[in-house]
Protein backbone atom coordinates (compact mmCIF):
# COMPACT_ATOMS: atom_id res chain seq x y z
CA UNK A 1 0.00 0.00 0.00
CA UNK A 2 2.27 2.71 -1.26
CA UNK A 3 6.02 2.80 -1.11
CA UNK A 4 7.82 2.65 2.22
CA UNK A 5 10.28 5.35 3.11
CA UNK A 6 13.90 4.48 3.76
CA UNK A 7 16.44 7.16 4.58
CA UNK A 8 20.05 6.53 3.48
CA UNK A 9 22.77 9.13 3.92
CA UNK A 10 25.43 7.24 1.91
CA UNK A 11 25.88 3.85 0.27
CA UNK A 12 27.61 2.04 3.13
CA UNK A 13 25.31 3.21 5.93
CA UNK A 14 24.01 0.48 8.21
CA UNK A 15 20.41 1.13 9.24
CA UNK A 16 19.14 -0.11 12.60
CA UNK A 17 15.77 -1.88 12.74
CA UNK A 18 12.80 -0.25 14.41
CA UNK A 19 12.91 -0.93 18.16
CA UNK A 20 16.67 -1.65 18.28
CA UNK A 21 17.34 1.87 19.48
CA UNK A 22 15.78 3.57 22.49
CA UNK A 23 16.13 6.90 24.24
CA UNK A 24 17.63 7.10 27.73
CA UNK A 25 14.22 6.30 29.27
CA UNK A 26 13.90 3.12 27.20
CA UNK A 27 11.32 4.32 24.66
CA UNK A 28 11.72 2.56 21.30
CA UNK A 29 12.76 4.54 18.22
CA UNK A 30 10.94 4.16 14.87
CA UNK A 31 11.98 7.44 13.23
CA UNK A 32 13.97 6.65 10.09
CA UNK A 33 16.54 9.42 10.55
CA UNK A 34 17.27 8.35 14.13
CA UNK A 35 17.61 4.75 12.97
CA UNK A 36 19.92 5.76 10.12
CA UNK A 37 22.59 7.79 11.88
CA UNK A 38 25.79 6.14 13.03
CA UNK A 39 26.07 4.53 16.47
CA UNK A 40 28.48 7.23 17.65
CA UNK A 41 26.24 10.07 16.48
CA UNK A 42 23.20 8.41 18.03
CA UNK A 43 25.03 7.94 21.33
CA UNK A 44 25.77 11.68 21.40
CA UNK A 45 22.15 12.57 20.68
CA UNK A 46 20.47 9.89 22.82
CA UNK A 47 20.61 11.72 26.20
CA UNK A 48 18.74 14.66 24.64
CA UNK A 49 15.86 12.64 23.13
CA UNK A 50 12.64 13.29 25.06
CA UNK A 51 9.73 10.99 24.27
CA UNK A 52 6.49 12.89 23.54
CA UNK A 53 2.93 12.05 22.59
CA UNK A 54 1.72 13.89 19.50
CA UNK A 55 -2.07 14.30 19.77
CA UNK A 56 -4.13 15.50 16.85
CA UNK A 57 -4.06 19.31 16.28
CA UNK A 58 -1.15 19.91 18.68
CA UNK A 59 0.89 22.90 17.45
CA UNK A 60 4.62 22.15 17.69
CA UNK A 61 5.98 25.41 16.22
CA UNK A 62 4.28 28.74 15.68
CA UNK A 63 5.15 30.57 12.47
CA UNK A 64 7.71 33.32 13.02
CA UNK A 65 8.59 32.32 16.57
CA UNK A 66 11.91 31.04 17.87
CA UNK A 67 12.47 27.32 17.33
CA UNK A 68 12.80 25.64 20.70
CA UNK A 69 12.63 21.97 19.71
CA UNK A 70 13.13 19.70 16.71
CA UNK A 71 10.63 16.82 16.52
CA UNK A 72 11.39 13.34 15.13
CA UNK A 73 8.06 11.45 14.77
CA UNK A 74 7.81 7.69 15.28
CA UNK A 75 4.19 7.59 14.13
CA UNK A 76 1.56 10.02 12.96
CA UNK A 77 1.75 12.97 10.61
CA UNK A 78 2.77 16.62 10.99
CA UNK A 79 1.69 19.38 8.61
CA UNK A 80 3.86 22.39 7.79
CA UNK A 81 1.46 25.28 7.32
CA UNK A 82 1.64 28.86 6.03
CA UNK A 83 -0.47 31.14 8.24
CA UNK A 84 -1.65 34.49 6.87
CA UNK A 85 -2.44 37.61 8.93
CA UNK A 86 -6.18 37.05 8.53
CA UNK A 87 -5.84 33.52 9.94
CA UNK A 88 -6.20 31.70 6.63
CA UNK A 89 -3.84 28.78 6.17
CA UNK A 90 -2.45 26.51 3.47
CA UNK A 91 -0.29 23.45 3.81
CA UNK A 92 3.28 23.68 2.48
CA UNK A 93 4.46 20.16 3.31
CA UNK A 94 4.05 17.12 5.55
CA UNK A 95 6.39 15.13 7.79
CA UNK A 96 6.06 11.53 8.93
CA UNK A 97 8.51 9.12 10.50
CA UNK A 98 10.88 9.64 7.56
CA UNK A 99 11.81 13.11 8.73
CA UNK A 100 11.80 15.82 11.35
CA UNK A 101 10.49 19.31 11.99
CA UNK A 102 12.66 22.30 12.80
CA UNK A 103 14.85 21.85 9.74
CA UNK A 104 16.07 25.46 9.85
CA UNK A 105 17.66 24.82 13.25
CA UNK A 106 19.83 22.14 11.62
CA UNK A 107 21.38 24.77 9.34
CA UNK A 108 21.98 27.31 12.08
CA UNK A 109 18.80 29.41 11.91
CA UNK A 110 16.71 30.19 14.98
CA UNK A 111 13.23 31.00 13.64
CA UNK A 112 10.84 29.12 11.40
CA UNK A 113 8.39 30.70 8.95
CA UNK A 114 5.95 27.75 9.02
CA UNK A 115 3.56 26.48 11.65
CA UNK A 116 4.01 22.79 12.45
CA UNK A 117 0.80 21.06 13.59
CA UNK A 118 0.03 17.39 14.24
CA UNK A 119 -2.44 16.17 11.65
CA UNK A 120 -2.66 12.48 12.59
CA UNK A 121 -2.07 11.38 16.18
CA UNK A 122 1.25 9.70 16.90
CA UNK A 123 4.33 9.91 19.07
CA UNK A 124 8.04 10.54 18.76
CA UNK A 125 10.94 12.43 20.24
CA UNK A 126 11.85 16.06 20.65
CA UNK A 127 15.31 17.55 21.07
CA UNK A 128 16.06 21.04 22.33
CA UNK A 129 17.50 23.06 19.44
CA UNK A 130 20.57 24.05 21.46
CA UNK A 131 21.33 20.39 22.22
CA UNK A 132 20.81 19.37 18.59
CA UNK A 133 23.10 22.09 17.30
CA UNK A 134 25.76 21.18 19.87
CA UNK A 135 25.58 17.53 18.82
CA UNK A 136 25.93 18.45 15.15
CA UNK A 137 29.22 20.29 15.81
CA UNK A 138 30.95 16.92 16.28
CA UNK A 139 28.75 14.82 13.96
CA UNK A 140 29.46 15.82 10.33
CA UNK A 141 27.59 12.89 8.74
CA UNK A 142 24.52 13.61 10.87
CA UNK A 143 24.80 17.26 9.89
CA UNK A 144 24.99 16.30 6.21
CA UNK A 145 21.92 14.06 6.54
CA UNK A 146 19.82 16.79 8.16
CA UNK A 147 21.05 19.43 5.71
CA UNK A 148 20.14 17.25 2.72
CA UNK A 149 16.73 16.61 4.24
CA UNK A 150 16.20 20.35 4.77
CA UNK A 151 17.22 21.19 1.19
CA UNK A 152 14.98 18.59 -0.44
CA UNK A 153 12.06 19.45 1.85
CA UNK A 154 12.44 23.01 0.52
CA UNK A 155 12.11 21.67 -3.03
CA UNK A 156 8.99 19.75 -2.02
CA UNK A 157 7.47 22.84 -0.42
CA UNK A 158 8.04 24.78 -3.65
CA UNK A 159 6.33 22.03 -5.68
CA UNK A 160 3.39 21.99 -3.26
CA UNK A 161 3.01 25.76 -3.59
CA UNK A 162 2.87 25.45 -7.39
CA UNK A 163 0.35 22.62 -7.13
CA UNK A 164 -1.91 24.64 -4.83
CA UNK A 165 -1.85 27.53 -7.29
CA UNK A 166 -2.12 25.74 -10.64
CA UNK A 167 -4.06 22.50 -10.25
CA UNK A 168 -7.69 21.73 -9.55
CA UNK A 169 -8.97 20.66 -6.16
CA UNK A 170 -9.61 17.03 -7.13
CA UNK A 171 -6.00 16.56 -8.21
CA UNK A 172 -4.68 18.43 -5.18
CA UNK A 173 -6.80 16.32 -2.84
CA UNK A 174 -5.63 13.12 -4.51
CA UNK A 175 -1.98 14.20 -4.34
CA UNK A 176 -2.36 15.09 -0.68
CA UNK A 177 -3.99 11.77 0.18
CA UNK A 178 -1.23 9.82 -1.59
CA UNK A 179 1.51 11.76 0.19
CA UNK A 180 -0.24 11.24 3.52
CA UNK A 181 -0.68 7.51 2.98
CA UNK A 182 3.00 7.18 2.03
CA UNK A 183 3.96 8.48 5.44
CA UNK A 184 1.46 6.66 7.64
CA UNK A 185 1.30 3.45 5.55
CA UNK A 186 -2.41 2.88 6.10
CA UNK A 187 -5.34 2.56 3.69
CA UNK A 188 -7.65 4.44 6.07
CA UNK A 189 -6.68 7.98 7.09
CA UNK A 190 -8.33 9.41 10.21
CA UNK A 191 -8.86 12.98 9.04
CA UNK A 192 -11.89 15.26 8.71
CA UNK A 193 -12.98 17.30 5.72
CA UNK A 194 -12.64 20.45 7.82
CA UNK A 195 -9.00 19.72 8.48
CA UNK A 196 -8.30 18.77 4.86
CA UNK A 197 -9.87 22.07 3.83
CA UNK A 198 -7.56 23.95 6.20
CA UNK A 199 -4.53 22.16 4.78
CA UNK A 200 -5.51 22.75 1.14
CA UNK A 201 -6.49 26.39 1.72
CA UNK A 202 -10.13 25.97 0.73
CA UNK A 203 -13.49 25.34 2.43
CA UNK A 204 -15.23 22.20 3.63
CA UNK A 205 -17.90 22.21 0.91
CA UNK A 206 -15.23 22.33 -1.81
CA UNK A 207 -13.39 19.39 -0.22
CA UNK A 208 -16.67 17.45 0.05
CA UNK A 209 -17.40 18.01 -3.65
CA UNK A 210 -13.86 16.96 -4.62
CA UNK A 211 -14.03 13.88 -2.40
CA UNK A 212 -17.37 13.03 -4.02
CA UNK A 213 -15.73 13.10 -7.45
CA UNK A 214 -12.95 10.76 -6.30
CA UNK A 215 -15.47 8.45 -4.65
CA UNK A 216 -17.63 8.23 -7.78
CA UNK A 217 -14.50 7.28 -9.71
CA UNK A 218 -14.03 4.48 -7.12
CA UNK A 219 -10.65 5.88 -6.06
CA UNK A 220 -11.53 6.57 -2.42
CA UNK A 221 -14.24 5.98 0.15
CA UNK A 222 -15.00 8.66 2.70
CA UNK A 223 -17.02 8.74 5.84
CA UNK A 224 -17.24 11.20 8.70
CA UNK A 225 -13.71 11.58 10.08
CA UNK A 226 -11.99 9.12 7.74
CA UNK A 227 -10.88 8.71 4.13
CA UNK A 228 -9.86 5.36 2.62
CA UNK A 229 -7.88 4.95 -0.59
CA UNK A 230 -9.42 1.96 -2.40
CA UNK A 231 -7.51 2.05 -5.72
CA UNK A 232 -4.09 3.57 -5.26
CA UNK A 233 -2.83 2.78 -8.77
CA UNK A 234 -5.73 4.58 -10.45
CA UNK A 235 -5.46 7.48 -7.99
CA UNK A 236 -1.79 7.91 -8.90
CA UNK A 237 -2.78 8.01 -12.57
CA UNK A 238 -5.54 10.56 -11.87
CA UNK A 239 -3.53 13.13 -9.91
CA UNK A 240 -1.35 15.88 -11.35
CA UNK A 241 2.37 15.61 -12.06
CA UNK A 242 3.24 17.08 -8.66
CA UNK A 243 2.89 13.79 -6.79
CA UNK A 244 5.41 12.09 -9.08
CA UNK A 245 7.80 15.04 -8.81
CA UNK A 246 7.64 15.07 -5.01
CA UNK A 247 8.15 11.32 -4.96
CA UNK A 248 11.28 11.82 -7.08
CA UNK A 249 12.58 14.25 -4.48
CA UNK A 250 12.01 11.58 -1.84
CA UNK A 251 14.10 9.28 -4.01
CA UNK A 252 16.98 11.75 -3.79
CA UNK A 253 17.05 10.97 -0.08
CA UNK A 254 16.81 7.24 -0.69
CA UNK A 255 13.17 7.27 0.46
CA UNK A 256 11.56 5.67 -2.55
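-> sequence recovered:
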Amino acid sequence: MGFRFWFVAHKNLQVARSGERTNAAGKAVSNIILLSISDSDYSSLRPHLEYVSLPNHLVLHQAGEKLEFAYFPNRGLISLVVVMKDGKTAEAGIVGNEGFTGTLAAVGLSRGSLQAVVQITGDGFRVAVAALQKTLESAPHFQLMLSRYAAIRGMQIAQTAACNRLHDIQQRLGRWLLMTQDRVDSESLGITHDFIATMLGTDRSTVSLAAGVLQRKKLIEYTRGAVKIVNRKKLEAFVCECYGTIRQYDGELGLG
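The domain at 168-239 is CATH 1.10.10.10 (Arc Repressor Mutant, subunit A).
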